[in-house]
Design goal:
InterPro entries: DNA/RNA_pol_sf (IPR043502), RT_dom (IPR000477), Telomerase_RT (IPR003545). One of its GO terms (molecular function) is telomerase RNA binding. This protein is an alpha+beta fold. It is built from 15 helices and 15 strands. The strands form five sheets. A four-stranded antiparallel sheet has the order 8-9-2-10, with helices on both faces. Strands 1-7-6 form a three-stranded antiparallel sheet. A three-stranded antiparallel sheet has the order 4-3-5. Strand 14 and strand 15 form a beta hairpin. Helix 8 packs antiparallel against helix 10.
Length: 402
């Protein structure tokens, strides 16, 4: 489901941009949004200032100042960086079983494998998927949870740029065209009165494991109060709009899908669910993983595996969680609510988020069948810079030396 990012008919100032939605599935979208309906000409008549100042050029043909665009970017950046960097550093457990990428699988599985290396018990796998996760998260609950994360009255958001050598960069080719350096703008968040300098951050965290990189501080910092950031989040969640044809609908359930904050909000929210409702899982013999809304439990306890399976299939109404039974998969015989659960048979390769996990050794491999359709795309990416590579090879030696 696609969403716009701001409320056009809000009386207060809107601090997020608006994105025009052209194609929306009416069957999935029209019913949930019944808060109000206004036609485009009615919005022009009732809220002329909002139309003149806030609506982008691609929607109404009016220019939007560069300053306003930059302000919108800063508004998005402030709370995102607070959730992404500062809060996890204070309490890493707030993210629970979150995987930020499939690449995190290796680290988590390796640590769990070391923990149970002396056990001869079989491993039980349970994979469940939350149905329409972003559309079912209660708005009031997620805002209440986010308000508990702010431990400081104000925060400081700083930006810096990281500069690295470009791809195919070689110093041993004098006179040859060198690739342009790669620049990446990043931001950090910390308490407004935190005495840590940018140099301290580099030594302790930012520069660790990064080679051939230049860090340049932007010097100018942005200061925001906790109340202002919470108001910004509330606006983002509760005043989200979608346009269907010439009508506008407010999203009353769920959080905006595809926004810069959606994944972070989902991770925090489901981490709280884990703490409140999945506390029966023993960390000594169980590993819970979650990539956004895809849960995977690996445990040596058959009892815990069945409890987790039953708990998730029963649903957690307070968190809007309802499992999609068609996507549930286990590697043992199981029945939930008089329905047999799909079981992995004839193989030890358990699929999870584009990877296979061996149900005995916990080895990881790629799901190549799933990725074969993008083989040509990957080939084109690898061919990037081929002309320069061939020229370099030809200048040094022939392809077929005797």
């Amino acid at each position: 489901m696609l969403y716009a990012r701001a409320s056009l008919n809000a009386q207060g100032g809107v601090r997020f941009g608006f994105r025009h939605i052209r194609k929306v599935d009416h069957r999935q979208t029209v019913q949930p949004f019944k808060d109000y309906t206004l036609r485009e000409d009615e919005i022009n008549e009732k809220y002329p200032q909002e139309r003149q100042r806030k609506i982008p050029k691609r929607l109404r043909g009016m220019a939007v100042g560069l300053v306003q665009k930059l302000q919108i970017q800063h508004q998005r950046c402030a709370y995102k960086k607070l959730l992404e960097y500062y809060c996890p550093s204070l309490d890493p457990t707030r993210f629970g079983a979150t995987l930020f990428s499939v690449g995190d699988l290796y680290t988590r599985l390796k640590a769990f494998q070391t923990k149970i290396s002396n056990s001869s018990k079989p491993l039980y796998f349970v994979k469940v998927d939350v149905k329409a996760a972003f559309d079912t998260i209660p708005q009031a609950s997620v805002i209440e949870l986010m308000s508990s994360l702010s431990s400081k009255p104000a925060y400081r958001i700083s930006k810096h740029v990281e500069i690295k050598p470009g791809e195919n960069y070689r110093e041993d080719l004098p006179g040859k065209r060198k690739a342009k350096p790669m620049r990446k703008w990043a931001a950090l968040a910390r308490g407004a009165k935190d005495p840590m300098t940018f140099e301290d951050t580099l030594k302790n965290n930012l520069a660790v494991g990064k080679k051939n990189t230049i860090f340049v501080d932007n010097i100018i910092n942005q200061y925001r109060s906790a109340d202002d950031l919470l108001d910004l989040l509330s606006e983002h969640v509760t005043r989200n709009m979608v346009k269907i044809g010439k009508k506008f609908y407010r999203q009353k359930e769920g959080i905006p899908q595809g926004s810069v904050l959606s994944s972070l909000l989902c991770n925090y929210f489901y981490a709280d669910l884990e703490a409140q409702h999945l506390g029966f899982l023993n960390e000594n013999d169980s590993l819970l993983l979650r990539l956004i809304d895809d849960f995977l439990l690996i445990t040596t306890s058959h009892t815990q595996a069945r409890l987790f399976l039953q708990k998730m299939h029963d649903g957690v109404p307070a968190y809007g969680v309802q499992v999609n039974p068609a996507k549930t998969l286990v590697n043992f015989e199981a029945t939930v609510n008089n329905q047999k659960v799909a079981r992995l048979v004839g193989t030890r390769a358990f699929p999870y988020c584009g990877a296979f996990i061996d149900t005995k050794s916990l080895d990881i491999s790629r799901d190549r069948e799933r990725r074969k359709d993008i083989g040509m795309l990957m080939s084109l990416v690898l061919l990037r810079g081929l002309g320069e590579l061939v020229a370099n090879c030809y200048s040094g030696r022939g392809f077929f030396d005797d």
